[in-house]
Amino acid sequence: MRKTALEQKGLFFWVLLVIVLVLVLLPLYWIFVTAMKSPVENISRTPIFVPHELYLQNFVKVIQGGFFGNLFNTVFVAFFSTLFSLALSFLAGYALSRHRFPFRFNTVFLVWVLAVKILPPVVLAIPLYTLFASAHLLNNLPGLVLVYQVYTLPYCIWMLFGFFKALPVEYEQAARIDGASDLGILAYIVFPLMRSGVIATSIFSIIMAWDEFLFALLFLRNPHLETLPLLIVNFITEYETLWGNLMAIGLLATLPLLLFSGYVYRRMTTGFTMSLK
Amino acid sequence: MHRDFARNRFYYLILFPAFAVIVFLTVYPVIQVFVNSFYKYNYLNDVRLPYGFTNYVTIIKDDLFRTAFANTIVFSVIATAVEVSLGFFLALLFYGFFPGKRIAMIIVVFPMMVSTMVICAVWRTLYQFDIGLLNYLLKLAGIAPVGWLNDPHVALFSVILVDIWQWTPFAFIIVQAGLLSIQREVFEAASIDGAGYFQTIFRVTIPILWSQILLVILLRTIDTFRIFAKVFALTGGGPGNSTETVSMYIYREGFVYFNLGRASTVSVYTLAVIALIAIVYIRQILKGDET
What we know:
The complex is a heterodimer.
Chain A: H1 11-35, H2 39-42, H3 57-64, H4 67-98, H5 105-118, H6 121-134, H7 141-147, H8 149-166, H9 170-177, H10 182-193, H11 195-211, H12 214-219, H13 228-238, H14 243-259, H15 261-275
Helix pairs in contact in A: 1-14, 3-14, 4-7, 4-8, 4-11, 5-8, 8-11, 9-10, 11-15, 13-14
Chain B: H1 2-36, E1 39-42, E2 47-50, H2 54-61, H3 63-93, H4 101-113, H5 116-127, H6 133-140, H7 155-181, H8 184-192, H9 197-225, H10 229-234, H11 246-255, H12 260-290
Helix pairs in contact in B: 1-12, 3-7, 3-9, 3-11, 4-7, 7-9, 9-12, 11-12
């Protein structure tokens, strides 16, 4: 087989590849190594690339400072935001892909949802703040889960809608002829077929909620409720120089995702390519 | 007939929850923003008076708003252009087989999986003027230290650089997916016809991938236009107002000064700009939807 112009990998290719990998890995390595350095090493005039000894005090301090509480808040919010969005958008996506509502409502709704995806969240922040304040939903995690639907729900609706459209209706028709109910079809026929689509959708939804900062900043005032992004920002502004502790938080907050990066990567790629269709 | 009715009702029922949440979280607030933009409205002392177009006039004359707007455009255009170009470049680099490809791909996509705030934290340490790694490396190369986050002429670009580091992989993934969907024969034919490397790229690859590239451009434009968290964590809008963006401006008006009227007016201006981008974007999405 003849190699095309794009496929030839010469020396130049390897040089470029190494440069790219170094640029990507350097900041990541810096997170790692800073977390392992003692405070003295961290403020050394000549940056230290390899710590003289493994300094684990940073992790101890961070954990004593209540890291797991913040981690729990983040996991709670990311998990329930995603679960809630998946449930709503699974139902809505199915309805939109299988039924033609009057007045071109399908298109109107999907375009509106798309517009919400485009909207800068800060635009919604002020009215939502006053609304949530009067409903006593500020300063609690379920309130945050609800407001995160601004991000996760439009994304999930579009993704699952795409997966539903790609799913042949023949299975459902066959089940219907056999006398299955609508709900039964949805639960026992459609859901198992959609499993990989649902997983792909959930990954990025979890990342979005895990990473969200603006609404967490505005809606949470109690330090015990802070999510990790908020914890990190407060740390940056209050203890600028405690880099070891800061990076220990960063490393602990990133580890879960990096450990599963192979898996996440595969799912994310399907997710993205799907969301473009 | 009766069964049809039951079936229809089922579809209405399952659509309703998502519909209700979307309306509650977006329709009401957007209306609220439009209404409030015509009021002199301070949340703290609870003053809410009709104000006509006064907010609209004073804000468009406000120097800080103009700076914020200009910075946002600069941020959005440069970040998007570089991310998409680099993403395209990476996709070309990774095209075809080479040993270690799988590992290299996962590494390149890492930045997208790291939390934005962790990224900001590590870049702050890298950017640190006296003891940061970047200025140390510059010193080794014999270059004077740069005030990455302290110099008003540089700070905005430093924030852009962080965004590029984080989101180039996104452009990469999508362009790559497009590239893999092109039949290999297309490149073979180009090669047989004597097309060189750059001709293959500009005459064959880019035209075929154009709709995908356009989508990435739009997605990154939309996302960078709302830039908030990075500015907040890296510079707080400073030094001076050199990294002030529209989102920061709305945040400050709304949640530091509690001028909800003014904040709403800026929001409406933002919506107007976003609507322009949105129209192109939605067209593109719906076009893909019909095929």
